[in-house]
Amino acid sequence: MSVLENKRYRDLKLEEGVYVPDIGMEYPEDDPDARLVPAVKVRDLKFDENYAFIDDSFLFRIQRGFVYFMIHTVYGLINRLRFGLRFEGRDILRKYRKEFSDGIMSVANHCYVWDGMAIALCLNHRLWIPMLSDHINGKSHWHLTHFGGIPLADGTISATKKFNEAFDTLHARKDWVHIFAEARNWHFYKPLRPFQKGAFTMAYKWNCPILPIALTYRPRTGFFRLTGPARLPLITVRIGEPIFPDATKPRREEVDRLLRATHASICSLAGIVENSWPASRD
After folding, report:
1. Nearest CA to 149 among 134, 169, 162?
2. pLDDT per position as a tens digit, 187-217
3. Is 15 exposed, middle or buried (0-12, 13-18, 19+ CB in 10 A)?
4. How does pLDDT run across 91-142, given as a tens digit for each residue?
5. Could you give the CA distance from residue 56 to residue 255 in angstroms, rounded to a whole number?
6. For residues 180 and 115, what is the distance between their CA atoms, to the nearest angstrom?
7. Do the Cβ atoms of 156 and 48 come closer than 8 Å?
8. How does strand 127-131 pair with strand 149-151?
9. What band does 281 get if pLDDT is binned at 50, 70 and 90?
10. What is the pTM of this model?
11. What are all long-range contacts of 32-35, with beta carbons under 8 Å and residues at least 24 apart?
12. What angle do CA 141, 146, 148 make, to 5 degrees?
């Protein structure tokens, strides 16, 4: 079935000339939380109140440095060759350098396996990313952990408190946090799925800028026909203008505004005129 037969694609309105990839995948029409890319579990760590969500050891810092060295060399080269990686809007990082000096939260659509690395390359910054626990217990656990993946807590009050305290500590250090507010990775999906509120609750609490980022698609042409299957698109990472919280506004009202403003900004960056999913899960 062509992706254009999916009702979320039929109801999608795009700017003229916006490319829509069709990789032969059938996407859910009514369940934005569906897991299309399950992790292969190889460990059974429990992410409860006893888990160290932040590792400050010397060994961890050395390994994290090595992973980012590989991202900027080998992995970055592969990403560029296979997906023709391009960046747009990086002048915004210079324009708001002062405002970003105390830390930011970037938010993007979640659409291919190496999108986190693409964003780290685009921002030229090390990131911390909340991740589903299955991925941290999966085959890529070493790479994901040292890239900056922090597993979501197991849902108990005590574990959730410790998870939140870990991110409060990272922000206090002026580190950069990235969140895929759609939560699930749907390969090369075009519509923007509803966002979860967690990212925007954090941004309001920290009073830190939100940086909208859209991963958009281009047809595979020229040299890149030799570096990957024709059905796989090339990737452009676009940075938008930051969105700043208003700490004087009530939390619920402002969190909702931040979510909707960020969702609308990423839609605009992706060339979406009318999206076919609501902005929020609620």
Report:
1. 134
2. 999 999 999 999 999 999 999 999 999 999 9
3. exposed
4. 999 999 999 999 999 999 999 999 999 999 999 999 999 999 998 999 999 9
5. 31
6. 10
7. yes
8. parallel
9. confident
10. 0.95
11. 32/182, 32/184, 32/193, 32/194, 32/277, 32/281, 33/183, 33/184, 34/184, 35/184
12. 100
